[in-house]
Amino acid sequence: MTTSTDDLAVSAQADPSTAGGERADLLATLAQHRHFLRFTARGLTDEQARQRTTVSELSVGGLIKHVTLVERGWANFIVEGTSAMADSAAMTEADYARRAEEFRLLPSETLADVLATYAEAARRTDALVTELPDLNAGHPLPKAPWFAPGARWSARRVFLHIIAETAQHAGHADIIRESLDGAKSMG
């Protein structure tokens, strides 16, 4: 199945003009980096979206799937707190194997479905940016080797992390896409 550019235009984006100041900036930046990530998938078939073009396990479809899961997880953290995050100390080999599948577009998955799921996650995050009463409200982070002991993140910090994650993986997807067929997100 080929995904058209029209399929990539996500009307789910919150309208930054309805939010003010900082919230508008967060929404606009999220929209920009999401666009670049989705744009790497333009015109790809499901097979192409699964294809690895570097020595890594990464593919365009897998990256979109991963960013969706990360965004959804952090949105859950904003709403539910630490209990929404996995306890890294309790993770098993099976948990890590499932995590590895988060980076792959599996044969039972389609690029169109992954993009639709991404749009749903984006709508939820954008609603949180717009509707949260206080961007300073936060929660302690779970214990994990990648978080400082006792660290706490505000909703604002989580949104900034989602932006950084999306931008980083949009760059990865751009390299993979260029290696696949020469198409670029920019330039």
What does this protein structure show overall?
By secondary structure, the protein is mainly alpha-helical. It has seven helices and two strands. Helix 4 runs parallel beside helix 6. The model is unreliable at 1-17 (pLDDT under 50). The radius of gyration is 17 Å and the shape is globular.
Write the layout of secondary structure elements.
Blueprint: H1 5-8, H2 21-39, H3 46-50, H4 60-80, H5 93-101, H6 111-131, E1 138-140, E2 152-154, H7 155-181
Antiparallel strand pairs: 1-2
Helix pairs in contact: 2-6, 2-7, 4-6, 4-7
Compact summary:
57% of the residues lie in helices and 3% in strands. It is mainly alpha-helical and 187 residues long.
Sum up the structure in keywords:
single chain, 187 residues, mainly alpha, two-stranded antiparallel ribbon
Q: How many DSSP-defined strands?
A: 2
The parts where pLDDT drops under 50 for at least 5 residues are 1-17
Largest sheet: 2 strands, antiparallel
| Strand line-up of the largest beta sheet | 1-2
Number of helices: 7
> Which H/E pattern describes the elements?
HHHHHHEEH
Output mean pLDDT: 88
Helix/strand class: mainly alpha
> What is the radius of gyration?
17 Å
C-alpha geometry: globular
Question: Helical amount among residues, as a percent range?
Answer: 55-70%
Estimated share of beta-strand residues: under 5%
Q: Roughly how many Å apart are the termini?
A: 27 Å
